[in-house]
Amino acid sequence: MKRASPVELSDLNRLIEGSLSRYSALRETDPLLYELIAEQTRAEATTLKMIPSENFASYAVLEASGSILTNKYAEGYPFARYYEGNEIVDQVEQLAIDRAKALFGAEHANVQPYSGSPANQAVYRALLRPGVKFMGMPVPEGGHLTHGWKVNFSGTDYYQIPYGPDPQTGWLDYDQIRDLARKERPQMIWVGATAYPRILDYEKFAEIAREVDAYLVGDIAHINGLIVAGVHPDPVPYCDVVTSTSHKLLRGPRAGFILCRIEDRLKSLYHPDEPLNLAKRIDRAVFPGLQGGPHLQTIAAMAVAFHEASTEEFRDYARQVVRNCRRLADRLLERGYKLSSGGTDNHLLLMDFRDSPYSGKYVARALAQAGIICNFNMVPGDPRRPMVTSGIRLGTPAVTSMGMKEPEMDLIAGWIDRVCRHLDDPTPVAQQVRQEVAELCLQFPPPGIKPRQ
Ligand code: DSN
Predict the structure, then answer these.
(1) Which position among 72, 254, 315, 319 bears the catalytic label?
(2) Pocket lining: 86 vs ligand 1, CB cutoff 6 Å
(3) What would the mean pLDDT of 329-355 be, rounded to a whole number?
(4) Mean pLDDT confidence for 272-286
(5) Minimal-distance CA residue to ligand 1 atom 1
(6) Closest to 243 in 3D by CA, of 411, 74, 120
(7) The pTM is what?
(8) How many Å lie between the centroid of ligand 1 and the Cα of residue 69?
């Protein structure tokens, strides 16, 4: 690989310090906090951010999210608020709503959820009575906490019927899901994952949901950008409700949003006393059901992210995310590593260490020492505990935002292999790899650090 010269090293340092100049007031007021942000900035610029749910927001997103809009209270919805002085912020929120609807082709959008989990909580509140049955994937099978995990409100206040990928193949079996739905008659079915490397078939899920008179709710937080780019199928025509975060692949602020049809396909079957249409029920569940004032600075940043995601440049980016992930998967498979489901169709892959004496947690720590930041993760059929696991989850959204392509994925696969071959004593190799990772990162300053183009 090309070695970085001292000049390039000082260039990166200059870029990093330049990007920190935007925090001059913070530096003066709270030097301790400033230094922590500076340290995190330096760490992110010199390591490989490979947690699949992380990414780099653009300068424009960061500016909107740090703007004076944080000062305004605006309980309610655009043009129907409980406070005065909202003429301008009404336009901000309406812009985010209009852009969300246009980007995803949805009838209705709510952009107020503080993040993905509150968005999902609002869906339960809008669609179900506590205690009723719904289907979702447990966390160890690749689902999200809010899809019914036992320690989450969704698992304690509602009754999860679990489904998940086959422990041997790592693939979802749609016939099994259909049989389970017929037997259990859930009132809602989640389709969405945090650790499933394959394409989800929304059409098949919709057939199943319709057959058993259940709502179908898509959680697209992980793959929102792939859907926008047309790399993955569009859930909107098939789902009653779709939830998402605006960060991850979309590169927006840390927040959530909900898309839905206006009319209720099931005619308020489970809310006979609530004649409101679906869109109104969702809105009412978010505010005043769960939240108070919307975070307008975040909603503004979300509007920016939707705007950025509507470009051809973003679609190219999303396509490259998948090409990079496939390349990384291929290179790991060639070296004999086991991947859950045998590969990937999206932005993430799961390395399966069920046969290894080393746990996912141990491997993730060794890779972090080498500057490859991923997370330990359960794999389907995992015999280890969630705090230990037999897998690691690697993703390509952030390294692709840095501008990395297939040749860099080859390097990363080689480094992962070098560390994994020395798991009995990973530190010496990890330290060597850490240096090489930093040298590669010098050539790919991340958005938010490199100068605006
Ligand atoms: N916790 C996120 C993830 O890392 O996948 C999902 O919300």
Answers:
(1) 254
(2) no
(3) 98
(4) 86
(5) 53
(6) 120
(7) 0.95
(8) 27
